[in-house]
Amino acid sequence: MTAPRRLAPDDPSLVDVLDLIRRSFACMEGRIDPPSSMHLLTLAALQDQCRSGEIWATGTPPSACVFLTPRPDCLYLGKLAVEEAQRGTGLARALVALAAARASALGLPVLRLQTRVELTENHAAFARMGFRKTGETAHPGFDRPTSVTMEKPVPGSPARS
Questions:
Q1: Is 2 buried (19+), middle (13-18) or exposed (0-12) by CB count in 10 A?
Q2: What is the DSSP letter of 22?
Q3: What does residue 94 show for φ and ψ, rounded to 5 degrees?
Q4: DSSP string across 89-158
Q5: Is the pTM here over 0.70, yes or no?
Q6: Cα(82)–Cα(90) distance, rounded to whole angstroms?
Q7: Strand 74-82 vs strand 110-116: parallel, antiparallel, or unpaired?
Q8: What is the tens place of the pLDDT at every residue in 32-81?
Q9: Cα 98–15–65 angle (5° rounding)?
Q10: Residue 82 forms beta bridges with which residues?
Q11: SS3 label, residue 5
């Protein structure tokens, strides 16, 4: 496994990251409602993410990636994607460990993510990585939960109240 690297807004690998996310999230089609926000992703959106947050990727072309967005009370993980042939090899776990290191460096006490209610296999995978369910949210226009919020404390960070 190659070490994760932070992508810059002008990195030519961003096109490959966009393709990786689209392939990795394709299995959600017809399973989740509303449809995935990955349909809204563009190269410009990835460049914006590089400027306002971070995108980390492993491999050339990228076989795994994660978006990191600092918030006042947490580091938010989004668009964690692993190439299907590489699943189960520890890439997601390595990117979550990298996220914890980044959160610690930024003085943020917790990692937070959201996964869709229907994707119970994702809930289980994140639980195995130390995340626990902390809530549910609904997308606009829905009267039922559509996402599960999960959090993981960052080792050595101040405890949340």
A1: exposed
A2: H
A3: -65, -40
A4: SSHHHHHHHHHHHHHHHTT--EEEEEEETT-HHHHHHHHHTT-EEEEEE--TT-SS--EEEEEEEPTTSP
A5: yes
A6: 10
A7: parallel
A8: 878 788 778 999 999 999 999 999 999 999 999 999 999 999 999 999 99
A9: 20
A10: 64
A11: strand
Two structure tokens written together for 49: 């993410």
Helices 14-25, 43-52: inter-axial angle, 10-degree rounding: 110
| Residue that has been written with the tokens 């070490």 in this structure | 3
Three-state SS letters, 38-92: HHHCCHHHHHHHHHHCEEEEECCCCCEEEEEEEECCEEEEEEEEECHHHCCCCHH
Dihedral over Cα of 102, 93, 4, 117: its sign: negative
- Looking at residue 159, the DSSP 8-state letter turns out to be P
Residue 161 reports pLDDT greater than 50 = no
Stated length of the chain: 161
Torsion angle of the four alpha carbons 20, 5, 59, 1, in this order, in degrees rounded to the nearest 10? -130
Q: Which residue has the tokens 């990298």?
A: 98
